[in-house]
Amino acid sequence: MFSLHLPHERLLEAYRTMQTIRCFEERIATEMGTGDIPGSTHLYAGQEASAVGVCMHLSDEDYISSTHRGHGHCIAKGCDINAMMAELFGRVTGTCGGKGGSQHIADLRKGMLGANGIVAGGAPITCGAALSAKLRKTDRVAIAFAGDGAMNEGAMAESLNLAKIWMLPIIFVIEDNGFGEATANEFVSAGSFVRRAEGYDIPSAEVDGTDVFKVYTAAGEAIERARAGGGPSLLHVHVPRYYGHYSGDPDTYRTPEEKKIMRQEQDCLIKFRNKVSVEDLVKGSALEAIDAEVIAAVDEAVKFARNSEFPPASALTTDVYVKYQ
Amino acid sequence: MAKISFRQALNDALRLEMARDPRVIMMGEDLTGGAGGNGVKDAWGGAFGVTRGLLGEFGPERIRDTPISETAFIGAAAGAALTGMRPVAELMFVDFAGVCLDQIVNQIAKFRYMFGGRARTPLVIRATYGAGTRSAAQHTQAFYPIFTHFPGLKVVIPSNPYDAKGLLLQAMRDDDPVIFLENKMLYDTMGEVPDGSYTVPFGEAKVVRDGKDVMIVAIGRMVKIAEEAARKLQSDGISACVIDPRTTSPLDEDTLIEFAEEIGRVVIVDEATPRCGMAADISAMLADKCFDSLRAPIKMVTAPHTPVPYAPNLEDLYVPNADAVIKAVKSIIER
User: Is residue A170 part of a domain?
Assistant: First the structure.
């Protein structure tokens, strides 16, 4: 039982980060209704245990790349939620000065190499970060988060091969939420992801992504192996996706009943609370206190975003090059 | 100054910069050639021999042969660049950009802007381009207009050994991603090249030859064609100036405008196909900026709007030659 080995404050930290992601995403779902967030977003709600269980092993020195559904990874890697919220609102105080938006949040100081609007686009880039860690003889690792849909992209197949050939310290965390956009994974994916990894001699495992302790344990093994020079791993993490593919997706390809059961039976926060209370590890009052703090922090983030300016017109043409002409 | 080949000039630049900066690494297909075999380890030194000898000097950690997997290694070069290295990736043929264009145009070109100026991608992608090798349609294209189109990329096309070395050293020291295109037909051309390190700045066109009757703008291999045409025109009493932009992004608009205004007649020679090509781009710019100074229509000498053919007689027709340039010049000289 890995939960027993986690110090009390790390349990609280895991809960706080998962709850922050949940609260952030639910608030965005609400704020989308106001029309003040431009474009659309892809919400990570339901998948929190995956990002958190993996990123708890990482420091700012380690790298992650993310996907179009990237808010959870950013928060788990320590990106500032005020700046993230401001980015979603397209404000100059945003993580990317309002020029990237939801799908391009990045913070290199935190080792966050970017969400990505292209499915599997981050996988080759993460191989490069892992190569850089290896060549500089550090024990840093790089995590390529990707969805089930990314497993059918050539970029992913190429990255798995390169990662193994070069024995890169990289972990491919494949978050399978059952749907690539609106199409069921089982309708489009042949064979098994774990067996695909085995074909490259890459150690792999299927993981219950609704249980942060299970993710933490599986990721810990893979990350330890990578830090020790043992090369890449792949985790096939099963997670629920609470919302549609993007905000505004009516999500009618799933029945109301299955969505209800999903939220009742596969909720990582409920499971966490049950587990820590059964084992009497954390007092309920401590979790409630965190809930209140998280709600206040997300409130504050929205206020920060709304009170921030849009980028000045001059920002249109800056930041294309470090130096041009 | 020693007279060395275009190929050797590039090899020298790579060697000098790798010795100077430990962050420079290289990756590509058959950069050494022979990796994993029982024979010579540095058998190829790149498909065109540009990287020969570097393995022995810098070792397999820094000179990395890759799988035939352009998306993976171009993307890996990007990730390494984002995290502190200064990679030089080699695309054996620029045509292979077709299988890794996402990494080049959606990722590499956009990191800095998407991330609000908080990223640097000091990456060079070297690639061969150009027709003339009897290699048909998929190993011969002149893709520089495509890359020039994308904000965030710099595009460099040397026409001679001196520029090849100085521009490549500049590319490796530049903090932005650079597409560095080498015309295969130029590898064996010789020229005077200094021994040590020097850089040729981007965005500074070179006046290859001065003249007063017509300005010929030429890129890459076309510079030699333009010079040949200018020599022949001289014997007909026509004085042609030849200008080599050297980089298409940034483009030295100031020099092109200055000469166009002074001379009033412009011919642009471009090995790329005509639609949305560099010739079209430069003519539009000049027509916009100095229409009143022009004494004749701007003429474009380009490849036809076709793929590159295989048969030698057809391929020779495909690539712009001196006669085509002379014909274009004469069509506007009397006006």
Answer: yes
